[in-house]
Specification:
With 405 residues, the chain is of the alpha/beta class. It contains 13 helices and 19 strands. The protein has helices spanning 26-36, 62-70, 73-78, 102-105, 117-128, 174-180, 243-246, 249-259, 267-276, 303-306, 315-329, 335-354, 369-382; strands spanning 2-4, 17-21, 40-45, 56-59, 85-89, 95-99, 113-116, 133-136, 140-144, 150-154, 159-162, 164-167, 187-200, 208-214, 217-223, 229-237, 281-288, 294-295, 298-300. It starts with a strand and ends in a 23-residue tail after the last helix.
Length: 405
């Protein structure tokens, strides 16, 4: 276990204690706001340090107000990627349409942000590292709520009691499993699986994405800047989530290679690069849908409670907004009333964003020839339309002001 950062403030009255599992987006954001409302916060993270890298992510709508209130909006604006072009090509590589990415994503030019995941997680960690305790290279093993708090046993061997525990540990949350049972109860598979990895930028791409499609398959090359590497994505329709392949690195590669065996364009080179990639990530495109987000003195936030899937582009924004709403709901309430308020005031925002995509009907990934033709016609029409004003779902919640102690 690597321990960093201890609370520096000294208070005369006892502070409520909170353990947060996960130090990506939702976890540090929740730690920031809980500390603001007087909690003594510990964050446990199984990785040895804050994670860098990863695909670029979006911060939109209501979430922009969260990062503004945290004081990191200017830093994130400086890190904005400014993707300028999204080009779609057909099976033989012929251009179908080329347009600004916001026309497809519903983003607003000059307002919404796209940043490297590591830039967001780094800014969040820096905002809280001097005020909360971080336990890296460790994780929760068991939770016991039989007493007046939550007794936690850590996999590193330690044991501690907290007033509350929060799961911010992602789509495949162990905290959720400990509190509510197997993931399958809440997992909504959307009919696709995907592989993501980085590869050499031998294509001359800069600040742009190029996407190839055939029915049920898509391959994308994403150049976040003028880097030597691009992010590669291979997405394919699959009737059931291939859980067995997720656990076996070679089975992952074989599954993707089989799905794209006869594909043209740059796909053969992408498959070759995938074989050698050391950062290959394979998962199902899915959501988490839960009837409630809390149990006793423990609650979930972000993807652990309501992953919307990357098809919505709203995962990080929901995490940021959810963290603000959860902490604020506890500012002047006990855990039971606070958790109830959190769900009551946040669920509609979560649902309207999750509902942006349904099973097998993602605009970017048509599964039939007819749907692909219709999608391509829509893209050509979009390229002639004025800039978007954004999707109402992204700003469907106005942040309340919570009392500060």
């Amino acid at each position: 276990m690597i321990r960093t950062g201890l609370p520096r403030s000294v208070r005369t009255r006892p502070r409520r204690t909170a353990l947060i599992s996960g130090a990506s987006v939702a976890g540090p954001a929740l730690a920031f706001w809980l500390n603001r409302y007087g909690f003594a916060v510990t964050v446990v993270e199984k990785a040895p340090a804050p994670r860098s890298g990863g695909y670029p992510i979006d911060v939109r709508g209501t979430a922009l107000d969260v990062v503004r209130r945290m004081g990191i909006l200017s830093e994130l604006r400086d890190a904005h990627i400014d993707l300028r072009r999204l080009t779609f090509v057909d099976e033989d590589g012929t251009e179908v349409a080329s347009l600004h990415p916001h026309a497809v994503t519903g983003g607003v030019a000059g307002r919404d942000l796209e940043v490297r995941r590591g830039d967001l997680t780094g800014a969040l960690h820096a905002a809280v590292r001097d005020d909360v305790e971080f336990l890296f290279n460790d994780s929760i093993d068991t939770l016991d709520q039989s007493g007046h708090g939550v007794d936690v046993a850590f996999r590193g061997g330690g044991r501690r009691r907290f007033d509350m525990v929060f799961g911010a540990d992602g789509l495949h949350s162990r905290t959720r499993h400990l509190l509510f049972g197997p993931e399958e109860r809440f997992h909504r598979y959307l009919g696709y699986s995907f592989a993501g990895f980085t590869m050499r930028n031998t294509f001359g791409l800069s600040h742009e994405t190029v996407m190839w499609n055939s029915p049920g398959r898509a391959a994308a090359l994403y150049a976040a800047g003028e880097d030597d590497e691009v992010h590669a994505l291979l997405n394919f329709a699959h009737p059931q989530p291939p859980f067995d392949a997720f656990r076996d690195p070679e089975a992952r590669r074989d599954l993707v290679a089989t799905a794209f065996a006869d594909a043209g364009w740059e796909v053969p080179g992408m498959l070759a690069a995938m074989r050698d990639a050391d950062d290959l990530f394979l998962d199902g495109v899915s959501q988490i849908r839960m009837p409630r987000w809390s149990s006793g003195r423990a609650a979930l936030v972000g993807d652990a409670a309501y992953a919307p899937s990357f098809l919505t582009g709203q995962g990080s924004s929901l995490a940021l907004v959810g963290a603000y709403m959860l902490a604020g709901s506890l500012a002047d309430r006990d855990h039971a009333a606070g958790f109830a308020a959190y769900e009551h005031h946040t669920r509609a925002f979560v649902t309207v964003n999750q509902d942006q995509v349904g099973e097998g009907d993602a605009t970017l990934f048509p599964t039939t020839s007819r749907a692909l033709t219709q999608r391509n016609d829509m893209l050509r029409d979009l390229s002639a339309m004025p800039p978007t004003r954004g999707r109402p779902a992204h700003s469907a919640l106005t942040l309340p002001e919570f009392p500060c102690p």
